[in-house]
Design a protein that fits this description.
- The structure is a homohexamer.
- In chain A, strands 4-3-2-5 form a four-stranded antiparallel beta sheet.
- Helices cover 9% and strands 59% of the residues of chain A.
- The radius of gyration of chain A is 13 Å and the shape is globular.
- Chain A starts with a strand and ends with a strand.
- The first copy, chain A, is mostly beta strands.
- Chain A has a domain of 42 residues: OB fold (Dihydrolipoamide Acetyltransferase, E2P) (Beta Barrel), CATH 2.40.50.
- Chain A contains one helix and six strands; from the N terminus they run ββββαββ.
- Chains in contact: A-B, A-C, A-D, A-F, B-C, B-E, B-F, C-D, C-E, D-E, D-F, E-F.
- The interface between E and F is large, with 38 and 38 residues.
Chain lengths: 68, 68, 68, 68, 68, 68
């Protein structure tokens, strides 16, 4: 199965915070921390929890570039 | 200066492709490749080119989570 | 494999237009037409073409609601 | 009045969940379910409720394509 | 007709650039310039051209905040 | 420091609402009101509060165009 989203960053969940509608999932990817806001429904259905091996997936049109 | 976007991934540009309206910027971040579609205007104004040290910036609401 | 994106609409590709950086993929979903702009790289790697059975995938935070 | 967003999916609201900042609106579109996260302000101002006829609106750059 | 997108900025188009898949629409909003990337299809169907009075529409989840 | 996002609208915060995961930041930009949904983490780390001078930052691919 292939998804057109270009960016797939493998990591491990370090924290899950559930709100009423949304959830914050924090993922350690190499030396970086990636934060994701998804629906609480998804977090619950996928049973996301600390320690889970997951992939952060990001569409290329959503990525900006910053130059110092 | 602080930006609310939660995700800042430092890396180096490996390729710049310019279209008419948009540009594809490929950034090596650790062991990962991150692809970004921005406007050609931005790519030109920032003079983005292979070898530039840049940061890929991503809003947390744009990040999905995949569990295998 | 599970992805947090809440919306998965099954359909069939009716048109593929390739630009320099991006590609327009048109998908017939039931009685609706769904248009997607992805990178040309993805369209080529996935060998997307007219007649392919695909799923349009959309993160819930990207969906607006209109009331007439 | 015309909006550049390419995707307009007509349906009926099946559930509204209000959080503090955001709201989850679930819409039945043909045989599909479409979930939308909008601000609670919008949900309240538009008085969105179960049974409302609405249109899910999605910008083409936000749609991904998956091939099985 | 009401749309859940929270941000509606009225202005006037100052430039339209058409690519193969996408189009860049530049809109003067008060003292600000707002740039939009939409599909070429939309730009053509809406016959967008310099001088048109338009509204830039932005979903609240797409807006970041920067503090100097 | 330069960021590829094309749209930078300067203004002043008129309201901050904190949820569990997200926060709603309302910014007065000239005669317009711009609403932003960011993570509560960002709102707290940046100590965003009423009266702060801030810039609303928006990627061009997230802006739609409406013609009346």
């Amino acid at each position: 199965m292939a998804l057109s989203a270009r960016n797939h960053l493998k990591g491990e969940i370090t924290e899950v915070v559930l709100g009423t509608v949304t959830a914050l999932i924090t993922v350690k990817v190499g030396d970086n921390i990636v934060e994701s806001v998804i629906t609480k429904h998804s977090a619950e259905e996928m049973k996301l929890k600390k320690g889970d091996k997951v992939t952060a997936v990001i569409k290329a049109t959503e990525v900006m570039v910053q130059k110092d």
